Amino acid sequence: MMKIQIQYFAMLAERRGLTEEWLTVETPDLAALYDALARQHGLPLSRVSIRPAVNDAFRAWDHPLRDGDRVVFVPPVSGG
Q1: The CATH number, out of the four listed (3.30.830.10, 3.10.20.30, 3.40.50.620, 3.30.300.30), of the domain defined by the range 2-74
Q2: How far apart are CA 1 and CA 21, in angstroms?
Q3: Average pLDDT over the chain, rounded to whole?
């Protein structure tokens, strides 16, 4: 078990109803974590549309999680 911080932005924050939270998880990597969160909270985007980051660096979906990590799932953004 490990404790990680998750930050949500844009439509993911709207759907989750939070901008951040701390969770205790057993998931081995970013893909498993996002899939579990998407199922649990009805997150609308597939992994193809999101860039995951851990501790301020973009990572591959198979990146292993460690206790204390800060995880951000970056959805597509637009603006001007």
Answers
A1: 3.10.20.30
A2: 16
A3: 93
